[in-house]
C-alpha cells in the first residue's frame, strides 16, 4: 500500500461543491489556502482518473503492470497520469460552479474533455500541432507507405508530449512494438530498422525546413532533460561513450523517475521522510542498473538512509526540487 489518502480539506472541498461554491472559493484563495484546496481536490481526483481513465488506457496499450496500480506505472505512463490529474484539478477549479452532490461522479463525467483540452493546450504552448496529422505534401514525400505515415504521426505526437524516453530522443522500443503489431515483421524488424525509418521520415519532413522547425525541432526543444543530443536528428553514427558517462546518464534517468514517484506519493499526504527513503532505496538500491553502478554505491546509499540528519537534508532538498513546499 502507498499509504492512506490525504484527507486535510477533503470534506470542505466536498461541502463547497455541494453548495456550488468550489470554483469561486478556489479562484479567490491564494498561498497555503489555495494549496490546501487544490491538494484536497487532487486527493479526490487521482483515484477517479486512474480507475476511469489511466487504467483503461494502459490495458489498451498492453501495459499490464501499469494497469495494476499507480505504484506500478512506468515513468512515461506516470508522466501522462500526473498530467491528466493536474488537468482534472484545473478543470474542477475552473468549472465546478454548480451544485455538485457527487464530486467523483462529476469529475468522471468530465474526464475526456478536461484531459483532451489540457493536452491540446500543452501542445499549443510548445508550438506543436494540437491535432497531429500528416499533411498531404508529407504523405507524398513518403510515397503513401502506411508504416512511414504512421511513424510520421507518432513523431509529431511525441514532439509535443512533455514526457521523455529516458536519455534517448525517441521511444524506440514502443515504436518497434507498434510497427510489428500493426504492420507485421515480428521476426525481421528491429531497432536498427526503426532508426533508418526515423531518419527517412525526418528527412522528408525537413524538405520544408520552416514547417520542420516549427512542428518538430521547436517542440522537441521544450522537453525536459534528460534528452539525447539533437545530433540524433541527423544521419550521424552513434558516438561511443565511456563507462563513467553511461553511469551518469543512467543515474539521471533514474532520478527523473524517482522524482515523479515521490511527487505522486507526497500528493497523497504520505510522510515525506518515509516516501523519500523508500523511493530512493527502491530506485537506487540493490546494485542499480543490473550492477552498472556497483555494490559500493548501494552500501553508501544504505548508510545515508540510516543517518537521520542526512536523510532530513535529502528530504528538504527533494521538496525544493519538486516544489511541494516544506509545509508538508
- Judged by helices, strands and strand pairing, the structural class is mainly alpha
User: How far apart lie the N and C ends?
Assistant: 20 Å
Low-confidence stretches: 1-6, 225-242, 286-296, 324-328
Oligomer: single chain
How much helicity do the residues have? Answer: 55-70%
Number of strands: 0
* Shape, per Cα inertia axes: globular
Strand content: under 5%
Number of helices: 15
- Backbone CA Rg: 22 Å
Largest sheet: none
> Averaging pLDDT over every residue, what do you get?
76
Order of helices and strands: HHHHHHHHHHHHHHH
Describe this structure in words.
This protein has 328 residues and is an all-alpha fold. The protein is 66% helix and 0% strand. It has helices at 10-19, 22-28, 31-61, 75-95, 103-109, 111-125, 136-141, 146-159, 172-183, 191-205, 209-220, 243-267, 272-284, 295-306, 308-322. The longest helix has 31 residues, at 31-61. It is globular, with a radius of gyration of 22 Å. The two termini are 20 Å apart.
Task: List the SSEs and their pairings.
Blueprint: H1 10-19, H2 22-28, H3 31-61, H4 75-95, H5 103-109, H6 111-125, H7 136-141, H8 146-159, H9 172-183, H10 191-205, H11 209-220, H12 243-267, H13 272-284, H14 295-306, H15 308-322
Helix pairs in contact: 1-3, 2-4, 3-4, 3-5, 4-6, 4-12, 8-9, 8-10, 8-11, 12-13, 13-14, 13-15
Amino acid at each position: 500500500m502507498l499509504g492512506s489518502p490525504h484527507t486535510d480539506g477533503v470534506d470542505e472541498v466536498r461541502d463547497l461543491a455541494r453548495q456550488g461554491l468550489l470554483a469561486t472559493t478556489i479562484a479567490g484563495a491564494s498561498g497555503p489556502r489555495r494549496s490546501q484546496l487544490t491538494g484536497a481536490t487532487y486527493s479526490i481526483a487521482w483515484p477517479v482518473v486512474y480507475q476511469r481513465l489511466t487504467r483503461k488506457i494502459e490495458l489498451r496499450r498492453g501495459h499490464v503492470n501499469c494497469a495494476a496500480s499507480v505504484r506500478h506505472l512506468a515513468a512515461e505512463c506516470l508522466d501522462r497520469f500526473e498530467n491528466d490529474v493536474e488537468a482534472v484539478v484545473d478543470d474542477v477549479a475552473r468549472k465546478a460552479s454548480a451544485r455538485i452532490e457527487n464530486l467523483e461522479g462529476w469529475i468522471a463525467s468530465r474526464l475526456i474533455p478536461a484531459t483532451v483540452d489540457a493536452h491540446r493546450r500543452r501542445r499549443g504552448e510548445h508550438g506543436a500541432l494540437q491535432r497531429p496529422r500528416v499533411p498531404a505534401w508529407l504523405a507524398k514525400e513518403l510515397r503513401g507507405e502506411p508504416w512511414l505515415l504512421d511513424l510520421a504521426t507518432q513523431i509529431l505526437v511525441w514532439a509535443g508530449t512533455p514526457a521523455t524516453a529516458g536519455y534517448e530522443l525517441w521511444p524506440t522500443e514502443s515504436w518497434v512494438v507498434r510497427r510489428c503489431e500493426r504492420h507485421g515483421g515480428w521476426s525481421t524488424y528491429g531497432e536498427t530498422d526503426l532508426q533508418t525509418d526515423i531518419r527517412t521520415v525526418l528527412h522528408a519532413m525537413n524538405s520544408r525546413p520552416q514547417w520542420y522547425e516549427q512542428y518538430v525541432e521547436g517542440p522537441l526543444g521544450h522537453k525536459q532533460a534528460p534528452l539525447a543530443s539533437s545530433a540524433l536528428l541527423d544521419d550521424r553514427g552513434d558516438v561511443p561513450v565511456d563507462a563513467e558517462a553511461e553511469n551518469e546518464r543512467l543515474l539521471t534517468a533514474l532520478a527523473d523517475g524517482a522524482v515523479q514517484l515521490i511527487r505522486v506519493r507526497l500528493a497523497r499526504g504520505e510522510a515525506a521522510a518515509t516516501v523519500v527513503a523508500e523511493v530512493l532505496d527502491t530506485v537506487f538500491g540493490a546494485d542499480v542498473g543490473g550492477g552498472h553502478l556497483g555494490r559500493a554505491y548501494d552500501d553508501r546509499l544504505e548508510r545515508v538512509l540510516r543517518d537521520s540528519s542526512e536523510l532530513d537534508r535529502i528530504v528538504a532538498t527533494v521538496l525544493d526540487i519538486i516544489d511541494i513546499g516544506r509545509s508538508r
